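Hi everyone, sorry if this is the wrong subforum. Our group has a chain we'd like a structural model of before ordering constructs, and none of us has done structure prediction before. Sequence below.
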Amino acid sequence: MSSSATSSESAVANAVESLRTAILAADGATLESLAAEGLTWGHSNCRVDDRATFLQKLSGPVPAFNGIEIRDQSIVISGTTAVVRHTFAAILGDGNGINLHHVLVWVFQNDAWKILARQAVKIA
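Answer:
Right subforum, don't worry. Here is the predicted structure as tokens:
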């Protein structure tokens, strides 16, 4: 693996971590900076939110999550697109837990990695 690929993977991993911490903090400004125009945010119940709904639901006075742990992450980069897969274990604001598999599609735009798509699947 070239150092450029390693550097890009590290940058994507950092973007994923920034997304995780911004969701936990309900940090609207950071979420907005990470969300690509045209973002689609797919849920495990088949609902799909657009960028505006994603920002509205995850920004605000009360965080949607009390804890988020990401495990078993893999990153594949092709040009200016990165596909990230991981297990997402979280405690919701109401105290209930969820365990999901995520696939995230990131694009490199304006010198930064931005999330373009997310799809979640419940772990049986």
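For your construct planning: The domain at 3-122 is CATH 3.10.450.50 (Nuclear Transport Factor 2; Chain: A,). The chain has one domain: 3-122.
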